[in-house]
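Project outcomes to date are best conveyed with an example. Our students and postdoctoral researchers have been running inverse folding experiments weekly, and each run begins with a structure described purely in tokens. The record below, which covers 108 residues, was selected by the lab manager from last quarter's runs and is presented without edits.
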């Protein structure tokens, strides 16, 4: 169940980060409310994930998965072009996430 909450937290965080561009410096109320709600939801989900997983593991997985998700979403939604070295870095982040997941330091 912790993994479900972690993934929901990643989704909420990623969507709110991508929507942050639409707030125009928090001058657009609807987009701003979406961003604030997304961040609040992310922290609620992460708090639930931490009931069954260590804090450091949840934070590392959340940060890494959010980085990858935000990058992919912004590439699709805003058509932002990223260099090959950036994608290589994203691959390294994904490898790190896999290594954390395979470690014996946490339970599923």
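After processing, the design step wrote out the following sequence:
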């Amino acid at each position: 169940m912790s993994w479900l909450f972690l993934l929901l937290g990643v989704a909420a965080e990623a969507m709110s980060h991508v929507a942050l561009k639409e707030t125009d410096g928090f001058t657009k109320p609807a987009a701003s409310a979406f961003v604030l709600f997304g961040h609040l939801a992310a922290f609620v989900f992460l708090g639930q994930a931490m009931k069954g997983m260590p804090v450091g593991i949840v934070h590392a997985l959340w940060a890494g998965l959010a980085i990858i998700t935000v990058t992919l979403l912004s590439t699709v939604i805003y058509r932002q072009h990223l260099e090959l070295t950036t994608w290589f870095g994203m691959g390294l982040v994904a490898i790190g996430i896999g290594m954390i997941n395979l470690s014996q330091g946490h339970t599923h």
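Residues 1-105 form one domain. The chain has a mean pLDDT of 90. The training component of this project remains on track.
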